[in-house]
Amino acid sequence: MRLIPKEIESLWTLFTAPTIWALHFLVCYITAAIYCAKAGAAPFSFEAMRLALGTVTVAALAGIALSAFLAWRQWGFGSGDPPHDEPTRKDRMLFQGFATLLLSGLSFVAVLFVSVPLVFIGTCQP
């Protein structure tokens, strides 16, 4: 029995990882911008904000990793080598799985790059 049914893999899965990255990007930068604009007025410290955004980052990376796993499964666990260019349903599904896997990898790296300031910036800069 599968934990996640195979029917969940559709064209929408192609956009899952980039959407998670975009939402993560917005949450991180909007939260930091509002916090720093209202420096001193926030009811929590800069460290608490960094910890919260770190938690959001871990959740985003987990969601992207799940998307990558579903894409890898849709691609047939790497059983077929690209290009998947035949006009058949099977090749379309393999191509979609492969493309989703590549987008998941790109989104994973993008989330890591968005998170770099959380590690190196110690306080709001005037």
TrEMBL record:
The chain crosses the membrane at residues 20-39, 51-73, 93-121. Keywords: Membrane, Transmembrane, Transmembrane helix. The keyword Transmembrane applies. This is Transmembrane protein.
